[in-house]
Amino acid sequence: MIRFHFLLLLLLLCLCLFSFSSVSVSSEECWVRCGAWRVAGEANNLGEWKAVPEECAEYVKAYMTGKGYLADLDIVSKEAAEFARTLQPAADGKDAWIFDIDETLLSNLPYYAAHGYGLEVFDHEKFNDWVEQGLAPAIEPSLKLYEDVLNLGFKVILLTGRSERHRSVTVDNLINAGFKDWNQLILRTPDDQGKRAILYKSEKRSDMVKDGYRILGNSGDQWSDLLGSSVSVRSFKLPNPMYYIP
Ligand SMILES: [Mg+2]
């Protein structure tokens, strides 16, 4: 009888261990798959996507709130600054560095924290309410790069998908977050509404080139900030696994 109980106990222990190990293997596999999804997104290998896959919600949250996101931002900023230091802006003041704003200079993490870190499909109205509060903090590694390129003598041009009607709140938000001395701040006019970001930004870069600017660097969290026409000599892609703008 004692032997039977012992065998039963052993069996239960084995079942328990098996079930724990399968949970941890499956969550580890999920983490690996979501890591692969994130890297595929950063490398622009995914098609257009509307929201973070449900099984990756926890992964993206952990990445955005943990050390990974900051470390990735840091390396982009440092590499960009290193490239900028290899250039010598000319005295004519026409060597330019373009920065996108959202998730490049300013962080909307407080907004996305309340909206599932990209799990929810993007809601323009709710996001605009957040923009109008003007409370987005600086992305610190980008602020460092911003100051570095200004000190090196580049003209800084801000090119954002935000609307012209948000100019005033955007200017206040940028200044409060520590950004200053930009040369131009370009926002979407009514004529630009409805254009895909890649076209809108290409057209604006083309205008800059017509104005005699040499676009040497471009920093953005979306490939649509960086690709298209009149592209910069080098582009720097900041991480963003929360949303995709075509
Ligand atoms: Mg952006």
UniProtKB/TrEMBL annotation:
Pfam families named among the record's database cross-references: Acid_phosphat_B
Keywords from the UniProt entry: Glycoprotein, Signal, Storage protein
Molecular functions (GO terms): nutrient reservoir activity
CDD domains associated with the record: HAD_VSP
Classification via InterPro entries: Acid_phosphat_B-like, Acid_phosphatase_pln, APS1/VSP, HAD-like_sf, HAD_sf
Signal peptide span: 1-27
Domain of life: Eukaryota
Cited function: May function as somatic storage protein during early seedling development.
Family that this chain belongs to: Belongs to the APS1/VSP family.
Classification via PANTHER family: ACID PHOSPHATASE-LIKE PROTEIN
Protein name: Acid phosphatase
